[in-house]
Write a structure and sequence with these properties.
Number of strands of chain B: 20
Shape of chain B: globular
CATH superfamily of the largest domain in chain B: FAD/NAD(P)-binding domain
Distance between the termini of chain B: 36 Å
Largest interface: A-C, 43 and 49 residues
CATH class of the largest domain in chain C: Alpha Beta
CATH architecture of the largest domain in chain C: 3-Layer(bba) Sandwich
Largest sheet of chain B: 8 strands, mixed
Oligomer: heterotrimer
CATH superfamily of the largest domain in chain C: FAD/NAD(P)-binding domain
Number of helices of chain B: 10
Number of domains of chain B: 2
Structural class of chain B: alpha/beta
Number of helices of chain C: 15
Chains: A mainly beta (99), B alpha/beta (376), C alpha/beta (456)
Chain lengths: 99, 376, 456
């Protein structure tokens, strides 16, 4: 479980919906920050079914992708939370098509 | 003057694209000693950069029999070469947004049926039913079920690897610079291999150097009327499987197909730019984006991940130059595929191998002779 | 239809901000562009709530204020996705797709943490030191409970101390280089670097007081866990940085922070056609520049970490040099004391040289992965597949990409290209220069089709 540095205070609270479940987040957090703060490390499955979460934290590695308000492949580490934001984790596990 | 390393071959193939590699493969399989010279890397240009369409429909009538014969080769190429080149017959849909285009497609369809190619013409309802992912802008289409796609770079490389297994020698980063002709007959090819010079004695040369074919050909007095043309492709990020067909619209000016990995390839059909340059202008990128959004509305939320350009070589009549020339014996041209050569690669290579090994190709190359350009 | 500016500066970190300030004060019409929602880059990253700012954060805020007062136009949340004829930059922002034509371009695109591959590196819980730092600095968030830091360089010390002060448990800090013996050779480089020495010493003290093990000459070997990091295997390293067999230890942890230096962010520079050379001691491929930091493409300058890892101070100084040169080129008269500036640059370069001599990741760090280790994270291509491609004739990074799909995924090779290049060089005996990198193509970040198609 991650810990926030509560002695510095947090921004105002707001609610985001993650895979249908309401989650409390704080203004100024990124989606990645909000997810990590709930103790979640992984929120995406690659096409080989492997779990991924945050790796580079600055938007270069594209591991942390989520679907936001219907738009897929959004980098969670760069995107600020907003009230009522609907987030879906991405499960990209596929059986590759064969001829 | 550095002495040349001397070699011998029965055939020297210049150009490591799909046509050159297919030629090397079919020749080597017949036990013929082949050396292939590629100035950069195998499949590094058009053959590795194209949209991957393996298409019989919508061709000049003269090419049609070659395309049909080539698809018969494509069908077992993966197992023959021992590499999964991702060939699949997902079908090809040629779309119309207006009645004039539909009429043209119907006429072409009738001709294709006559020539033994099975195609279907779809009206708007049939199109909705068979390809529901397409945008509303289309009023109908022509469909060919035995058309398909393959992985361009893997297909080209697989032919090269197989050629090597049969004894062909392939030199990359080895630009050919001189074709030696004595008494009107090819006798040798000079090339640069790193810091060394190589000289290959050979009675046969196949010039499959794509848009670079004229440069070398000029030196032996055989002008080749092809012009370079920039073609651009964009790919999206991986997307869940949406469609298996290769789809194309001349009216919108784009074509697209979804690769096995899920990325959608989007190319332009009529953005001419007679240049060797491979920079991509912003307007072209925007055109491709607009086109795919209209063509497959579900991709509006997709992102372009990468855009690249390749260089096609265009003949005045947009069909290839394939076969021997009057001016020099032992010199075969295999170029001018004008942006639709990927499908024809295997058959072109096979026919040239037959010409050399058997004295004549199994399909007539008369329509593709250089001499048809009588003004040169 | 493009917006016209005199100077476009890409990247608003220490380098970009400094260049903007000098040029704008001289009278030039400057546009400063940053892909992030606020200026400052990594070094000056501001927290969400401006409470308890560090010295660096205060400096950054002050510099930003000066830049605004000097009349610099700033576009944040704006990424440069392409570069076209006549120095036209393609921009993407909440406004959509726009174009800017600049007479001079200054690249200050910074750097990103160098990823190192080892078994288990793709497990959730393994992240870069920069990722941990960013979460701490900006969101005041500690992204784990039991931290293992592995890498090289004093930044690890500082990060460990920050974590400890934030209440996290740091199980160990592993430093790959036995640098202490060698640092005494560089007293002249350290002279004047009191701020840095002070910070390092304070961090060191914090770790000592909390009894955080700092192991010099140690490194990560692998990480294990079912669906996330559960434990790490570490080992002492030989002189070349290879783990010494038989001396492995296991540590229970849930977060592993990789601090192996930085890779210059040079995709835009290479897309522009700027000639680069391979300088491992500067982080990778760096642009060839003249005395005024102009690259081989005229009217294009490069400053800061994107031109060679050198830290925030050097970036600021280089920014001033390029801002000065750009202003002069446009006919303005900046009041910079160039001689003093160059002297300060020289001083920082000595530090930069020392830093790289002491803290370049040793070769062994690149040999931790096995054939079943994923190297290309995006396309999940393993080391074995890459080596098979090399064995089949791929002799450049690009050819490996074409054959395996490594580098074709979302990050376009930013994570894996340098690892692939080393493998190609290793297996073929060719130099990194010959092996090359991956050719950059537009768009430099994924751009929505809907936005690209909306213009015209």
């Amino acid at each position: 479980m991650s810990r926030n540095l509560t002695r510095f205070g947090r921004g105002e609270t707001l609610t985001i919906i993650v895979d249908g479940t309401p989650v409390i987040a704080h203004r100024g957090e990124t989606i990645a920050g909000a997810l990590l703060a709930t103790g979640r490390r992984a929120w995406r499955y690659t096409h080989h079914g492997q779990p991924r979460g945050l790796f580079c934290g600055i938007g270069v590695c594209f591991d942390c992708l989520v679907t936001v308000d219907g738009v897929p492949n959004v980098r969670a580490c760069l995107t600020l939370v907003a009230e009522g934001m609907v987030i879906h984790t991405q499960n990209e596990t596929s059986d590759e098509r064969t001829s | 003057m550095k002495p040349s390393r001397k070699m011998e071959a029965q055939v020297v193939v210049i150009g490591g694209g799909i046509v050159g590699c297919a030629s090397a493969y079919y020749l080597a399989r017949r036990g013929i000693k082949v050396i292939l010279l590629e100035k950069d890397i195998i499949g590094g240009q058009a053959s590795g950069r194209n949209g991957g369409g393996v298409r019989q429909q919508c061709r000049d009538r003269r090419e049609r029999p070659l395309a049909i014969a080539s698809v018969k080769l494509w069908e077992h190429l993966s197992s023959e070469l021992g590499v999964d080149i991702e060939y699949m017959q997902g079908g090809n849909i040629r779309l119309a947004t207006n009645e004039e285009r539909m009429e043209a497609l119907r006429r072409e369809g009738n001709e294709e049926l006559e020539d033994g190619l099975n195609v279907e013409v779809w009206d708007r309802d049939e199109l909705r039913r068979r390809a529901p992912y397409l945008g509303d802008v289309f009023i109908g289409a022509k469909y060919c079920a035995t058309d398909g796609t393959a992985n361009p770079i893997l297909a080209t490389r697989a032919l090269a690897w197989a050629a090597q297994r049969y004894g062909a020698h392939i030199y990359t980063h080895a630009p050919a610079h001189t074709i030696h002709v004595t008494h009107g007959r090819v006798v040798a090819v000079g090339a640069q291999d790193g810091a060394n010079e190589i000289l290959i004695e050979t009675p046969w040369v196949i010039n499959a150097a794509g848009p670079w074919a004229p440069l070398l050909s000029q030196t032996i007095g055989v002008p080749v009327p092809v012009e370079p043309s920039r073609s651009v492709i964009a790919i999206t990020q991986r997307h869940a499987p949406l469609f298996r067909e290769f789809i194309s619209s001349h009216d919108l000016g784009v074509y697209a197909r979804q690769a096995r990995a899920g990325q959608v390839h989007v190319g332009g059909t009529n953005i001419p730019a007679r240049t060797f340059e491979q920079d991509v202008p912003a307007t072209v990128i925007e055109h491709l984006a607009r086109g795919i959004a209209q063509m497959v509305p579900a991709l509006k939320n997709a992102n372009f991940l990468r855009v690249w350009a390749g260089t096609l070589e265009m003949t005045p009549d947009k069909i290839p130059i394939l076969g021997p020339v009057d001016q020099v014996q032992g010199y075969l041209l295999a170029t001018g595929f004008s942006g639709h050569g990927f499908c024809l690669g295997p058959i072109a290579g096979k026919l040239l191998s037959e010409l050399i090994a058997d004295g004549a190709p199994s399909l007539s190359l008369h329509a593709f002779r250089l001499a048809r350009f009588s003004s040169i | 239809m493009s917006e016209q500016v005199e100077i476009a500066i890409v990247g608003a970190g220490p380098g970009g901000l400094s260049a903007a300030l000098v040029a704008a004060r001289a009278g030039a019409h400057v546009l400063l562009i940053d892909h992030y929602r606020q200026v400052g880059g990594q070094y000056f990253r501001q927290p969400v709530l401006p409470v308890s700012l560090t010295t660096a954060q205060r400096q950054g805020a002050a510099l930003r204020q000066q830049v605004l007062e000097a009349g610099v136009k700033i576009y944040t949340d704006t990424v440069v996705w392409g570069i076209f004829q006549d120095r036209v930059l393609g921009l993407y922002s909440p406004k959509g797709i726009t174009y800017v034509q600049a007479q001079v371009i200054i690249l200050a695109t910074g750097a990103y943490d160098r990823p190192i591959a080892f078994p288990g590196w793709t497990l959730p819980g393994v992240m870069t030191a920069g990722a941990v730092q960013t979460l701490l600095k900006e969101q005041r968030l500690v992204p784990g409970q039991r931290f293992l830091l592995t890498g090289t360089g004093p930044l690890q010390l500082v990060l460990a101390a920050e974590l400890v002060r934030a209440g996290a448990k740091v199980v160990a800090v592993l430093e790959a280089n036995r640098f202490l013996a060698r640092v005494l050779r560089y007293t002249d480089a350290l002279w004047g670097q009191w701020g840095r020495l002070g910070e390092a010493s304070r961090s060191w003290l914090t770790l000592q007081l909390q009894r955080v093990p700092y192991r010099m000459g140690w490194g990560i070997v692998s990480v294990e866990g079912a669906r996330q990091v559960e434990r790490a295997t570490i080992a002492p390293l030989d002189a070349q940085g290879y783990p010494i067999a038989g001396r492995e230890e296991k540590l229970e942890c849930d977060t592993v922070a990789l601090g192996y230096g930085f890779i210059p962010f040079n995709t835009l520079a290479r897309l522009l056609g700027v000639q680069h050379v391979w300088r491992p001691e500067l982080g990778g491929e760096v642009p060839i520049r003249d005395a005024h930091l102009q690259t081989t493409v005229s009217q294009v300058y490069a400053v800061g970490d994107c031109a060679g890892i050198g830290g925030a101070r050097l970036a600021q100084l280089e920014g001033q040099v390029a801002g000065y040169a750009a202003a002069i080129h446009l006919g303005y008269r900046p009041t910079t004391d160039l001689a003093a500036l160059n002297k300060a640059v020289e001083h920082e370069r000595r530090f930069q040289k020392m830093y790289h001599a002491l803290f370049t990741p040793p070769p062994g760090v690149y040999a931790l992965s096995h054939d079943d280790t994923v190297i290309c994270r995006c396309e999940e291509i393993t080391q074995g597949e890459i080596r098979r491609a090399i064995a089949s004739g791929a002799h450049t990074t690009n050819e490996v990409k074409l054959l395996t799909r490594a580098g074709m995924g979302n990050c376009q090779g930013r994570m894996c290209a340098h690892l692939i290049a080393r493998w190609v060089a290793h297996e073929t005996g060719r130099s990194l220069e010959q092996v090359g990198g991956l050719p950059p193509r537009p768009p430099l970040v994924p751009i929505p089709v809907a936005d690209l198609g909306r213009t015209l």
